[in-house]
Specification:
- The structure is a single chain.
- The chain is mostly beta strands.
- The protein has one domain (2-168): Lipocalin.
- Helices cover 12% and strands 63% of the residues.
- The chain has a 10-stranded antiparallel beta barrel with strand order 1-2-3-4-5-6-7-8-9-10.
- Strand 3 and strand 4 form a beta hairpin.
C-alpha cells in the first residue's frame, strides 16, 4: 500500500509539472525593443518557440532578426517543484523559477547582472530583460558606537532595458 501511495504521489507531481508548462507550448512572434539608459532605442524582430519534448523537458528556441540568422536553441529542464534549468547547450546552465504564470531568472555574465522575466498572458508572452553593471556599496555602519546597525547594500546601475510582447501564432 505504501508503494502504491508513493507511485501515486510521484505521478501527481509529474502531471502537475507537465500541466504547468503545457500552456506555454507554441510559437510566439513580435518585436524586441531595446532601450539604453542614454535613450538609444533599437527594435529587432523576435520569435520564441516552446516545444514539449516530454513531461520534464521543453525545447526553448529564441530567434532574432528577419532572416533567422541568430537562432538560440535552448532546453528548459525541470529540476524540482517550480524550479527549472535553462540549458544553453554550450556549458551554460541558468536557474529559472516559476511563479504562477512567470518564469524568472537572474544571472551574471561579464560583469553585468541580467534579470529575465517571461510572463504568460492570454494572447502571448511578455518578455522583459534588464542589464545592470557597476556594483556600488553604501550603508554598513555595523560596530560603530551610538549608531543603529545598518547593513551594507549593493546597488547596480541599470544600463539596458529590453521588452517584447510576443503574440501566439
Amino acid at each position: 500500500m505504501k508503494n502504491v501511495l508513493t507511485l501515486l504521489f510521484c505521478a501527481l507531481i509529474s502531471m502537475g509539472f507537465s500541466q504547468q508548462l503545457d500552456e506555454w507550448d507554441g510559437t510566439y512572434s513580435g518585436k524586441l525593443e531595446i532601450v539604453s539608459v542614454k535613450g538609444k532605442k533599437t527594435e529587432v524582430p523576435m520569435q520564441l518557440k516552446i516545444e514539449k519534448v516530454n513531461d520534464s523537458l521543453y525545447n526553448w528556441t529564441l530567434i532574432y532578426g528577419d532572416s533567422a540568422q541568430d537562432v538560440r536553441p535552448y532546453q528548459l529542464k525541470h529540476k524540482d517543484e517550480n524550479r527549472f534549468m535553462m540549458d544553453e547547450n554550450n556549458g551554460i546552465l541558468l536557474d529559472v523559477s516559476l511563479f504562477e504564470n512567470e518564469l524568472i531568472s537572474l544571472f551574471e555574465v561579464q560583469g553585468s547582472i541580467l534579470w529575465v522575466n517571461y510572463t504568460l498572458l492570454k494572447k502571448g508572452i511578455e518578455m522583459r530583460i534588464t542589464s545592470s553593471v557597476n556594483r556600488q556599496e553604501s550603508g554598513g555602519t555595523a560596530g560603530k558606537e551610538d549608531q543603529e546597525e545598518i547593513p551594507v547594500v549593493g546597488s547596480y546601475t541599470t544600463v539596458v532595458s529590453q521588452f517584447a510582447f510576443l503574440k501566439k501564432e
